[in-house]
Amino acid sequence: MAPNLIERFNLNIRVQPKASRNQVDGFENGTLRLRVTAPPTEGKANAGVIALLAKALSVSKSRLEIVKGYSSRDKVVSIETLTEQEVHERIKAVVSG
User: Fold this and answer.
1) Residue-number span of the structural domain to which 91 is assigned
2) For the chain, what is the mean pLDDT?
3) What is the pTM of this model?
């Protein structure tokens, strides 16, 4: 029996913490720009990033994982079950809104 392969896509993100509102700004040079209201302390901004992305992509938070950049504005988030094309289409739909 072959193992069940799960589709994963790593997304580069630039985060602006302590913003006035949670918002997906779209892609700039291949990096998704996000604004979150949470401060960058005690993982609050990271939790805000996961919550905002989950809502924008219509996936559960458990399907998202920060794999690089825990304490940086520049992060890499692994998205389970979506392809790169699906991620870009869903983000485009949210931004054009």
Assistant:
1) 8-96
2) 93
3) 0.90
Domain tally, the chain:
1
80: three-class secondary structure by DSSP: strand
**Residue 5 pLDDT more than 80?**
no
Residue 7 CA to residue 65 CA, distance in Å, equals 14
pLDDT in tens, 69-95: 999 999 999 999 999 999 999 999 999
Q: CATH no. for residue 90?
A: 3.30.1200.10
Alpha-carbon separation of residue 56 from 26, 41, 73 (angstroms): 11, 23, 19
- What 3 state SS string does 32-78 have? EEEECCCCCCCCHHHHHHHHHHHHHHCCCHHHEEEEECCCCCEEEEE
Q: Is residue 57 part of a domain?
A: yes
Question: In this structure, is residue 41 part of a structural domain?
Answer: yes
Per-residue pLDDT of 53-74, as tens digits, reads: 999 999 999 999 999 999 999 9
Query: Quick check: is 3 in a domain?
Result: no
